Amino acid sequence: MTIAYSSDLKLSLIATGTEAGVWGQITNTNLVVIQQAIAGYQSLAVNATTGLTLAFTDGAISTGKNAVINLTGTLSGNVNVTVPDAIEKTYLVNNQVTMGTFTLTFKTTSGTGIKLAQGNRYVLYADGTNVNIINMEQVWRAVSANTTTQPGAGLLVNTSGGARTITLPASPATGDFVSFIDAGYTFDTNNLTVGRNGSNITNSAGDLVVNTEGAGFTLVYSGDATVGWTYRDK
Description:
This protein is mainly beta and 234 residues long. The protein is built from 1 helix and 20 strands. It has 2 domains: 3-137, no CATH class; 140-231, Jelly Rolls (Sandwich), CATH 2.60.120. It starts with a strand and ends with a strand.
């Protein structure tokens, strides 16, 4: 075997004195793969029930090597975007998947990963074992129906058509947060109920009912099961 492959981008590594006549072609492919890793953009559809596995093909352009990934699709179950174990790579991720009440986790094969919020943009990195978050841009999203939300969501909730229930993420991690704004200034007439989804909210084992016109607030999960979700600002 005269060609080995690098551990992360799977670049072709040519043994000294081999691959006569094709060295230039192999080198050019390597340069294109490097370009993909630095500046490549690709829009990828997430399967509704099976998710998406990012590919890392030896010596070739492949989906997992892009710098920027735009995720699309509509979920009908909880799914993952999966990076193979042992890959070390940074990603800019734009999550345009319609998630409904389901979750989308960006993870390595054996790691726990990061749960993405619909509409948000992320800087993530795979360290070979797990996917971690460097930064997140919270993108505000209009909501006018009952739904279950995701960590990091910014929701412009409109209750002008009737009272609404927004259910918090299940099994939250310390520091997870969700932001709410009364988009129609109607929380006083049509209340917002924040469903606790098994976790306490502000020291109480009950849902949070918001009836203040024009309310805007963020709930952060404290990591303390007794306190549960608490206000970021009060």
